[in-house]
Amino acid sequence: MSSLIAASVFFLAIHFGVSGTRLRDVLTSRMGEGPYRGMFSLASIVGIVWMSMAYSRAPAVELWGQLIGLRPLASALVLLAFLFAGIGLVTPSPTGIGMESRLTQGGEIIRGMVRITRHPFLWGVALWALAHTIVNGDLPSLIFFGSLLLLALGGTLSIDAKRRRHCGEAWERFVRETSNVPFAAIVAGRNRLVPALREIGLWRPLIAIIAYALLLVLHGRLFGMPLV
User: Using an 8 Å Cβ cutoff, are 100 and 108 in contact?
Assistant: First the structure.
């Protein structure tokens, strides 16, 4: 268990203690954007691999126990997570790595999933982690998936803060028409759902649903228990 805790602390520390902070600004000014991203990516890979290996070896310590009855709800959350993350990955957004320059496109960049949330991939990760945290009900799962949930939600705030520092008024204009929390800008009347759905189209959700269906079939073989 100590290895899982150490891995989780390491993984969260490099993101919340470096990425999105002023320390990152100092490091990139000294070593350059490319070398920094390379080193940070390597550290992130080490962190997630370490976490995964430690999680697979951690002793089972039951907390609230497996909530079998909530598996259908968890499956629905995971499907929603796949839609958010999958569509988000193929939707250009100034919140993506190295995409700050897209802010110069003005309102043209606010299309599709970006109308719903400016952080679709991270919200997808958050929903996926939340589903697994609730259903598994053991301490290793709480540490592993809870850390990823914390990282995803905190990551949205970290990215917003970094863009605000670096992009100024261009970022503020983008924020005025979008929202971090899904659908908040639409509910507030700052954006519209119908254009978002039309711009998302059919092929993006279809790919996400196919990926989810494959997981549904293979989950038991890969992770030792069915998804539902």
Answer: no
